[in-house]
């Protein structure tokens, strides 16, 4: 295999391996590659020599230093996961003398340690209404926000939608999610109308099979990061504090919970592979949690 002469070459080979050998999605390969590039770039010149002489102490020191600069816990977790993956690949490629992935320290995290935060009532409507449907960009952005709202799609799932994924007559939409799992979902009327308005009135006819594309040429599919940007811009227009696309999933789950849906039903809609992923929403089911609270003890005679 080609020597890792520069960070760009190393990451190119690594991403190709993730896609062809590991079967990861393009978005995951992109994210892992970004973290791998930062690691390789930090090694300085003579990358091949530095990788060949890499030690466990070098790896541990890098993780400790880098994790201290990262504020978001999820980003720190993504960094160590990507670095372990890259170091395993580096060993397979013969760039390092041994597998150093075990030297990557784990970040402190506890499952279900957070409380899902849904958006206040009316916010999702305000975000969708902030889009100027008299413009091509507005039609596209409104369709993106409506899909996030009514289906709780992940940002990568929105960016990856193809025209062939939409069954207009059957009222179904095919979504490719984590681990490249493909599932068909009912297409609610609101989502279908927003998509139809964009496809027939705003989407360039020479844009290929991808649903959401850039407005300016050269045309290419929007990225997951662009979905985040669409939501942030809508927040600015609506005068709302910035939120990310994932808050729409939390909002949908909280709305279903208030409407009386069970956790298994929520997990089915959000397409969770594990019930543990859905169980976090039990924390916001205050009506069912209230009877479990014990009375606060009071002094005698009070």
Task: Tell me what you see in this structure.
- This protein is mainly α.
- It folds into 2 domains: 7-103, DNA polymerase, domain 1, CATH 1.10.150.130; 123-286, Orthogonal Bundle (hpI Integrase, Chain A), CATH 1.10.443.
- The chain contains 14 helices and 3 strands.
- The chain has helices at 7-20, 26-42, 47-52, 56-69, 73-92, 123-129, 136-151, 155-159, 189-201, 224-238, 246-258, 263-270, 275-279, 286-289, and strands at residues 166-167, 172-176, 182-186.
- Helix 6 packs across helix 10 (224-238) and helix 7 (136-151) crosses helix 11.
- The radius of gyration is 23 Å and the shape is globular.
Q: What is the H/E string?
A: HHHHHHHHEEEHHHHHH
The total of helices stands at 14
Structural domain tally? 2
Rg measurement, Å: 23 Å
Q: CATH superfamily membership of the largest domain, which one?
A: Intergrase catalytic core
**Do you know the CATH architecture of the largest domain?**
Orthogonal Bundle
Helix content: 40-55%
Distance from N terminus to C terminus (CA atoms, Å) equals 78 Å
- Report the mean per-residue pLDDT as an integer: 88
CATH class of the largest domain: Mainly Alpha
Low-confidence stretches: none
- How many strands appear in the DSSP assignment? 3
Structural class: mainly alpha
Q: What would you call the shape?
A: globular
- Strand line-up in the sheet with most strands: 1-2-3
Assess the beta-strand content as a share of residues.
Answer: under 5%
Q: And the CATH topology of the largest domain?
A: hpI Integrase, Chain A
Biggest β-sheet description: 3 strands, antiparallel
């Amino acid at each position: 295999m080609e020597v890792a002469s520069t960070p760009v070459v190393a990451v190119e080979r690594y991403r190709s391996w993730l896609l062809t050998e590991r079967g990861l999605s393009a978005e995951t390969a992109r994210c892992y590659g970004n973290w791998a590039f930062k690691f390789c770039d930090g090694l300085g010149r003579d990358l091949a020599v530095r990788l060949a002489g890499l030690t466990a102490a070098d790896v541990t020191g890098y993780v400790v230093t880098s994790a201290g600069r990262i504020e978001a816990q999820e980003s720190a977790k993504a960094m160590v996961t990507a670095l372990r993956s890259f170091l395993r690949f580096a060993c397979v490629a013969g760039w390092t003398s041994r597998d150093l992935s075990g030297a990557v320290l784990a970040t402190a995290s506890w499952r279900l340690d957070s409380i899902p935060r849904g958006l206040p009532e009316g916010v999702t409507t305000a975000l969708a209404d902030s889009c100027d449907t008299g413009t091509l960009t507005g039609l596209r952005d409104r369709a993106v926000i409506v899909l996030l709202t009514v289906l709780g799609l992940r940002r990568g799932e929105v960016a990856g939608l193809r025209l062939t994924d939409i069954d207009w007559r059957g009222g179904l939409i095919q979504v490719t999610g984590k681990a490249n799992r493909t599932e068909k979902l009912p297409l609610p009327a609101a989502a279908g109308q927003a998509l139809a308005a964009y496809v027939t009135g705003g989407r360039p006819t020479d844009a290929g099979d991808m649903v959401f594309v850039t407005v300016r040429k050269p045309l290419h599919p929007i990225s997951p990061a662009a979905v985040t940007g669409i939501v942030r811009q809508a927040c600015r227009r609506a005068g709302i504090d910035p939120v990310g696309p994932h808050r729409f999933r939390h909002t949908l789950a909280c709305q279903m919970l208030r409407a009386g849906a069970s956790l298994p039903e929520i997990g089915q809609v959000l397409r969770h592979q594990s019930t543990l992923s859905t169980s976090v929403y039990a924390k916001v089911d205050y009506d069912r949690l209230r009877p479990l609270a014990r009375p606060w003890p009071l002094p005698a005679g009070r």
